[in-house]
Known about the structure:
The chain has helices at residues 21-46, 53-65, 72-80. By secondary structure, the chain is mainly alpha-helical. The termini are far apart. The chain has 3 helices and no strands.
Amino acid sequence: MPKKRPSRSPSGSPATPPAGAIVDHGFIPVRARLIEVAAFLDRVERHAVADDFRCAALRAAAALLVDGRPQRARRILEKLSDPTTAPALVSSGKAALGAWQPAASAPRRASP
């Protein structure tokens, strides 16, 4: 079955959806993800590992959701990302951790 193309305005640009359509379309999946985050935080607290740096990073990022400022997605991504620009001398491992943790004693190369 062919994909339905978005409706277009007479000028050729995509038509603006009715104001409530964005909420109608996205609310239920976002609600489910929010509950999933809450359940995850409940589990890590029950297992006494809520002080893990990744859990702390999630809590700090979650605070940005309700601060009333724009560009939440960008700011949350930045909050969870490594802000450094100098490469590490030694890799911390193969997999991404999902949140940044400053290396306590790992030396970094100076930027050229």
